[in-house]
Amino acid sequence: MKTVAILCLAFSLSACAAPGPNASADDPYEAHNRQVHASNKALDQALSGDGNDSGRSIPPAIGDGIVNFADNVSLPGMVANNLLQLDLAAALSNTTRFILNSTLGLGGILDPADDIGLFEDEADFAQTLAVWGVGEGAYLELPVIGPQTQRDVAGRIGDFFVDPFGKFASDELVWAARIANLASKSVKRDQFSATIDSVLYDSADSYEQQRLIYLQNRRFELGVTNADDAVDPYADLYGDE
Amino acid sequence: MNRRHMIALTSSALAAPTMSVAVPTATAQTLVDGLVAEVNDVIAANMSEAAMINRFAAIFDRYSDVPTIARYCLGVDARRASAAELRAYTAAFRDYIAGKYGRRFQEFVGGQIIVVGAKPVKEWVEVETSVRLRGRNPFQMDWHVSDRSGRPAFFNFIIEGVNMLLTERAEIGAMLDKRRGNLSALIEDMKAI
What we know:
The complex is a heterodimer.
Chain A: H1 2-13, H2 30-48, H3 60-73, H4 75-84, H5 88-103, H6 112-115, H7 125-131, E1 139-142, E2 146-149, H8 150-162, H9 165-168, H10 171-191, H11 193-202, H12 206-222
Antiparallel strand pairs in A: 1-2
Chain B: H1 3-15, H2 25-44, H3 49-63, H4 66-74, H5 83-105, E1 112-121, E2 124-132, E3 139-146, E4 153-159, E5 162-163, H6 164-178, H7 183-192
Antiparallel strand pairs in B: 1-2, 2-3, 3-4, 4-5
Helix pairs in contact in B: 1-2, 2-3, 3-5, 4-5, 4-6, 5-7
């Protein structure tokens, strides 16, 4: 039943357009997205200060533990997606990482796997959809969540079904994972405050900057960057040819 | 510079007359080796933000092709600018970019950049580096190097897929739109950042 739901979702999205050249955005909902952007910015400002305080406010020792734990509990879901993408090498390395950090890493609070170079091989259902050939769809800015594509939204729903963590973990652990996930987001917001502040508060058009940065980074993560997008300012000095 | 690079440099210098367009891969990698060593010095040292930005400005001057980056980011408006306007804009852009990315490199403090490798792409060389920050997955930073300005220099960098030239071109374009296309006003705005 779940599989059918996911396949239907995948099918309905396969009509979505492929990304165009030069990090262009398919943004038919721009007017509405900009409204959401303004309220997201106001929310960010309320939660993280006015963007003028530089430096971290969360001590690294606490922040790192939260991020490590949240990353660790997301690994089973990543392994499920590695398998759906038939990426067995990534599935194996993420599984090893999960076992190592859950045991030696005291339930994932520490990250001994990192120390031996066993880094996280990120995967999510949006990536699985991309591997299956589903197009990116339109760009969306969602309340609180922020930048997404239609494929990312479908991926979030898909991840809810494919993530096996809830099936083997206790209810308490599942709740701890959810809370850690939220906390991890604010730690990362704090850790990269200078870059995020610079994009949100120092840009002439923060909506456009965020869209451009999000889409380029997301395509890179998903491995769908088009090599022809590379810019050659010597061949095209004014970028208008 | 290690011996491997010396040999590669020497051999590429010998091969230079037959290799017309692209910068030799080894030359590009040597450039990024030097650049990365300097950046690592800056992020390992305990210095003020102003001192860091000064160091980054010097690194940009030495290792990048600022005039080309500046002109690309201005786009079509560079066509109708006078030589004097373009000079003033390029100088303002240089300070703007060093300040902006110098401040961002502050997040790398305590970390380290490692050169992974280099490969020719189209008319230039892409040098891949990996940024290692404590408690975080390493992230990829690619440098695009060319000698078409007359010397080997980088003209773009891409952080986890985010292309500096495209991002800054959009930003400068938005800044110029705010000033209804007035270049002198843009230059003043850039100086204020």
